[in-house]
Automatic annotation (TrEMBL):
Native source organism of the sequence: Paraburkholderia dipogonis
Protein name stated in the entry: Dihydroorotate dehydrogenase electron transfer subunit
Domain of life, source organism: Bacteria
Pfam families in the record: DHODB_Fe-S_bind
Binding site for FAD: R83, P84, M85, S86, G107, T108
Binding annotation for [2Fe-2S] cluster: C254, C259, C262, C281
Keyword Transmembrane recorded: no
Cofactor note: Binds 1 FAD per subunit. Binds 1 [2Fe-2S] cluster per subunit.
InterPro entries in alphabetical order: Cyt_c3_hydrogenase_gsu, Dihydroorotate_DH_ele_sf, Dihydroorotate_DH_Fe-S-bd, FAD-bd_FR_type, FNR_nucleotide-bd, PyrK_electron_transfer, Riboflavin_synthase-like_b-brl
């Protein structure tokens, strides 16, 4: 494990993590990292942005991967299980990892109590991230709520690889729109839609997306954070014959493929009526757009 080389984060070898053979996948460099909190501040009435200093192995996390966070006790008490959080940013040069999280129940209320200098116990990086085809020229990202956190590093990654990125950021209200500046700074063309303006409605959004596709066709599609956006993108991807991926959320236990608490049904292949069951934590959380079943 690379973490042993790093002085500022006490880390532990995840020796009891499932092996590749246990999990039917490739070996992954998963470890429990003691990360130092640098920033943990509100971005609006619901979400907070946390930046931690992390060992090299953690800061190499890829877009779509997540960490399973041990949450300190908060106002609603302590939590037994860790809480999964997407990588909002990871910088192997600065050795930082970022999270953008909504304060909801006991776990995230506990996370919100962390102060700069405190230690965050983060297990990861976990899961399979996005795999953007090398030839991608125009990527469409549809993000809502938590999906903003998950898709944000994919936008930056795609631009760095020379792709054009059109991003739709959807929120209940303008006050809850997050990260638009960050996405623009990364090089994405950002279109904001909100429930309060009425333009987040899938029918209106569909018209906008068709227009964009007619101007410059999308050749890869990704979405996260909304079932309605998933269904819309599946329909358009099917019609346009454009592939894509989606990252999904699911309550999970171990986060490493062992406990099967996060199993969900998926189509065996695009268009198939046959279902298969996959672990969101290990086989995902990023899945083929057309194989994902809506909920
Ligand atoms: C792979 C993955 C990545 C995630 N990334 C982010 C992220 O970047 N930012 C973020 O804000 N949230 C993210 N989530 C959701 C986050 O894990 C939950 O919001 C968190 O576990 C809530 O814990 P809690 O103790 O605060 O609330 P709880 O008291 O456990 O729950 C509060 C509410 O959240 C719902 N909830 C709890 N866990 C989940 C879950 N896993 N999926 C869906 N709903 C849930 C509950 O049903 C309840 O309504 C992610 C989830 C997954 C599976």
């Amino acid at each position: 494990m690379t973490e042993a080389l790093l002085p500022y984060c006490a880390t532990h070898d995840a020796s009891d993590a499932p092996t590749a053979a246990d999990c039917g996948g490739a070996a992954r460099d998963i470890a429990e990292h003691a990360c130092q909190v640098l920033v943990n501040q509100p971005v609006n009435a619901e979400y907070r942005h946390m930046v931690v200093r992390a060992p090299a192995g953690a800061s190499l996390a890829q877009p779509g991967q997540f960490f399973h966070l041990a949450c300190p006790p908060g106002a609603s008490g302590s939590t037994f299980l860790r809480r999964p959080m997407s990588v909002y940013g990871a910088d192997p040069v600065r050795r930082t990892v970022e999270f953008l999280y909504k304060v909801q129940g006991a776990g995230t209320q506990g996370l919100a109590t962390l102060q700069p200098g405190d230690t965050l116990d983060a297990l990861g990086p976990l899961g399979s991230g996005f795999s953007l085809p090398d030839c991608t020229q125009h990527l469409l990202l549809l993000a809502r709520g938590v999906g903003l956190a998950t898709l944000s590093p994919l936008a930056a990654h795609a631009v760095a690889r020379g792709a054009r990125v059109t991003a739709v950021l959807s929120a209940r209200s303008k006050a809850l729109v997050m990260s638009a500046q960050r996405w623009r700074a990364a090089g994405a063309t950002v279109h904001i839609v909100t429930d309060e303006d009425g333009d987040s409605d899938p029918l209106q959004l569909e018209a906008y997306l068709r227009d964009q596709h007619a101007k410059q066709p999308f050749d890869f599609l990704s979405t996260c954070g909304s079932n309605r956006l998933l269904v819309l993108l599946q329909k358009l991807g099917n019609e346009w014959d454009v592939a894509g991926q989606t990252a999904i959320e699911q309550h999970m236990g171990c986060g490493m493929g062992s406990c099967y608490a996060c199993v969900r049904p998926f189509r065996e292949s695009a268009g198939s009526d046959r279902l298969t069951f996959r672990r969101v934590c290990w086989d995902g959380p990023v899945f083929d757009l057309q194989e994902t079943t809506s909920w």
